[in-house]
Design a protein that fits this description.
Strand order of the largest sheet: 1-3-2-4
Order of helices and strands: HHEEEHHEHHHEEHHHH
Strand content: 5-15%
Shape: globular
Largest sheet: 4 strands, mixed
Oligomer: single chain
Radius of gyration: 19 Å
């Protein structure tokens, strides 16, 4: 079993490096060391050790991802309109492929902390804290004094940046209308984030090291929506952030197809994930009369993005982080150029 867990993690890291570096020379330069720990808790961390980045992963991380997909498989995830499993996931290897996809994103997320220069500002990047970890032991954030950002907000921004870039690298391999693989990989990403949310709750660290699962989900869905819009859109600089703007609004037919073929199926699958993991608050953010889809439209097309116009808790958290993130990116750019 230990060899299997090591193999799963090593294969995921190799795939993540191939995606992030296109298999080029940078993959050798970026390649971190990988250390596995025989601990059943869900935990992973990246830090700089003797001038080389090191990724540490508990065996429990792989075990919990594996157990989640094996549990989810008979629970109606990835079902098409005819009540059948998506064609790309038929066969006995479906859960193993999803385990690899989830682990690959987790490794990509960690690599993005390195690639995006976050270690210029903090000493380590933790995927999730152990139950024994205390806030005082969290990663130390080093920022210019004049910036005035709360270190907690900075950590959340770094997590949002790593989420966005890792997801973009995985999902950009598909055309915007390749709904089946986009759905599968989006849900595999969110399965990891949901597990992180559960562990943070169990550890008493909810809201400390990471944005909420609802906020991270909104970030991913906004990215999917923007990718669909790119061919008919332009980037416009706003007061706090750059936004994608379309010359003309999409037709009702186009919107209906995108919502019916991707957005709603992804939400339905993730509700199943959150329900199995007993994440009640996250499930409530997504299900029933959730304003999530309307909030996605507001974020893309609305002129005012605020607590008054965004209705769900996770989306409001995202909006606040976007403003702080623009200030942080500017500080990071200035530090790099200076």
């Amino acid at each position: 079993m230990a060899d299997s867990i090591n193999q799963v993690t090593e294969a995921a890291l190799a795939s993540a490096l191939e995606i992030s570096c296109d298999g080029g020379e940078d993959a050798v330069v970026l390649r971190p060391s990988l250390t596995m720990h025989h601990d059943d808790r869900f935990w992973a961390m990246t830090r700089l050790e003797a001038d080389r980045f090191a990724i540490h992963v508990n065996a429990g991380t792989v075990k919990q991802i594996r157990e989640l997909w094996q549990t989810l498989w008979p629970h109606g995830v990835f079902i098409d309109g005819d009540g059948k499993r998506l064609r790309s996931l038929t066969g006995n290897d479906g859960p193993d492929r999803l385990i690899h996809t989830s682990m690959k994103w987790l490794m990509l997320h960690e690599l993005m902390h390195v690639e995006m220069g976050h270690f210029e500002f903090m000493d380590k990047a933790e995927i999730v804290g152990l139950a024994s970890a205390q806030p005082a032991k969290s990663s130390k954030v080093k920022l210019p004094e004049h910036l005035g950002l709360d270190p907690l907000v900075v950590r959340h921004c770094f997590e949002m940046q790593a989420d966005w870039q890792a997801s973009e690298l995985m999902l950009s391999r598909y055309a915007a209308d390749e709904f089946m693989p986009l759905r599968v990989e989006s849900v595999a990403i969110m399965a990891v984030i949901a597990l992180i949310e559960r562990q943070n709750i169990l550890a008493g660290l909810a809201g400390h090291e990471h944005p909420s699962a609802a906020s991270r989900f909104f970030t991913m869905m906004a990215g999917l929506f923007q990718r669909w819009m790119y061919e008919r859109a332009q980037l416009v600089e706003g007061r706090h952030t750059s936004r994608v703007r379309m010359h003309t609004l999409p037709s009702d037919e186009d919107l209906r197809m995108y919502l019916d073929c991707l957005v709603r199926p992804v939400i339905d699958d993730i509700i199943v994930v959150a329900t199995v993991l007993e994440l009640t608050e996250f499930t409530n953010e997504l299900g029933g009369d959730s304003p999530l889809i309307q909030d996605i439209f507001t974020a893309q097309f609305g002129e005012d993005i605020s607590d008054a116009t965004l209705k769900s808790k996770g989306d409001r958290e995202w909006a606040r982080l976007i403003v702080a993130n623009e200030e942080l990116k500017l500080a990071m750019a200035q530090r790099e150029s200076g």
